[in-house]
Amino acid sequence: MTDSAALRRSAFPADFRWGVSTSSFQIEGAGREDGRGESIWDRFCSEPGRIRDGSNGLVACDHYHLWPQDLDMARALGVNAYRFSIAWPRILPNGRGPVNEAGLAFYDRLVDGMLERGLDPWATLYHWDLPQALQDRGGWTSRDTVAAFLEYTDVVTRRLGDRVKHWITHNEPWCSCMMSYWEGVHAPGGRSLPDALQACHHVLLSHGQAIPLIRRNSAGADVGITLSLHPIAPASSRDEDAAAVRRHDGLRNRWFLDPLFGRGYPQDTLALLGAAAPRVEPGDLDAIATATDFLGVNYYFPEVVRDDPAGGPMGTALVEREGVERTAFGWEVSPQGLVELLTRIQRDYAPAVIQLTENGSTFEDVLTADGRVHDAQRLSYLQRHLAALKQAIDAGVPVKGYFAWSLLDNFEWAEGYLRRFGLAYVDYATQRRILKDSGLWYGRFLNE
Ligand code: FCB
């Protein structure tokens, strides 16, 4: 058992990537500046009742203007990698067609700013801000959006591919499809399972088809995709609950991992989905299975399920374990879950490289009279997850990098600004950034 507080950076491999993670819509603001088009999240925010605090991303952390100080802060923390995403509506305001030079110029400056500070740029092409013009034509449910994504990817990687050498095609297809086209909680707020599954298929297809394009435009680059994955436990020792775990895992995890690793969609899950299953054309599964250089994993929490014949297409229900530690979001805190998840991925899929592209927590942060944020719970979460990561590495899982979510408090999607995940606190009234105790610790850990 590692004493997590005593953990040293030197216990990790010397070439380990230490990073922070961000995304465009959540931090940039400048929603109507320099020719940026409308995204599905702008539209969603404008619809009453969608965002819990009624907010939007028009200003957010104003990172569009304050990026030099944000990158300075990242450098001071001692990270050597910086994960950000590119806003498609800044580059192609109508989704396709005319390119907005001012949008490309912004990311040019940002990437140069990273390189000047010794931060290796890790760019995500799609972190959920689809141009609204494409949504008006069906969004990800339409196969044409795959071609639009390739057009966008080509423009971006031609421009930045000489300097950006790590590309993530998509962030968390579960969220950009299931939560967005089925559960109705993320933009565009759809409520159809068949739509969501079709959207997922197109997202995965666009990932696979983009890989050769990125490699052509960005010589020697590493390309991957980031999934949100969960270890899943049964609510009891009953056989029914064990079977429920398998079914839940089919849609939650294997639905994405299996096709990416060349196995096609899981047969047991397809059987349960019946007519809701996506239309797949010849060659699609081969494209989705195009080899990548790494698998990006975002880990936040484990899930516990029980058998529930009335519980949706998989016949399962989520159960809240009693008496466990939780974040302010209600997410169970389980560093051990990270070890379980990583060893499972390794056992079942054996990717050559795993990057932990997000991990973090939200708590009720308070800026105290001493001008500090004493976020002891987040600090402990961070330390214990790093200790868990070390345990997984020691067990032979090829994790090569860790990116804390997030550098800054930011727009937390349907929760607006109510949830703070940053290592730095953002005072939205003044846009002042204040490193929390967790951020100060991460900095000490990295700079030891
Ligand atoms: C992940 C998202 C990220 C952020 C964190 C808390 O699902 O990728 O943008 O919202 O959750």
Q: Output mean pLDDT.
A: 98
Give a quick account of the main beta sheet: strands, pairing sense, barrel closure: 8 strands, parallel, barrel
Distance, first to last CA:
22 Å
H-E order = EHHHEHHEHHEHHEEHHHEEEHEHEEEH
Structural class: alpha/beta
Count of distinct strands:
13
CATH hierarchy, class: Alpha Beta
Enumerate the spans where pLDDT stays under 50 for 5 or more consecutive residues.
none
Architecture, according to CATH?
Alpha-Beta Barrel
What's the total helix number? 15
Shape: globular
Distinct small molecules bound, one entry per kind:
beta-D-fucopyranose
Domain count, please report it: 1
Helical content, roughly?
40-55%
Short overview:
This protein has 448 residues and is an alpha/beta fold.
Which structural traits does this protein have?
3-stranded mixed β-sheet, 448 residues, binds beta-D-fucopyranose, 8-stranded parallel barrel, 15 helices, alpha/beta, single chain, TIM Barrel, 40% helix
Secondary structure topology:
Layout: E1 17-21, H1 24-27, H2 40-46, H3 63-77, E2 81-85, H4 88-91, H5 101-116, E3 120-126, H6 132-135, H7 144-160, E4 166-171, H8 173-182, H9 193-217, E5 222-228, E6 232-234, H10 239-260, H11 267-273, H12 284-288, E7 294-298, E8 303-307, E9 316-318, H13 335-349, E10 354-358, H14 376-394, E11 399-405, E12 424-427, E13 432-435, H15 437-447
Parallel strand pairs: 1-2, 1-11, 2-3, 3-4, 4-5, 5-7, 6-8, 7-10, 10-11
Antiparallel strand pairs: 8-9, 12-13
The protein binds beta-D-fucopyranose.
Beta-D-fucopyranose (FCB) binds at residues 23, 26, 171-172, 175, 228, 298, 358, 405, 412-413, 421.
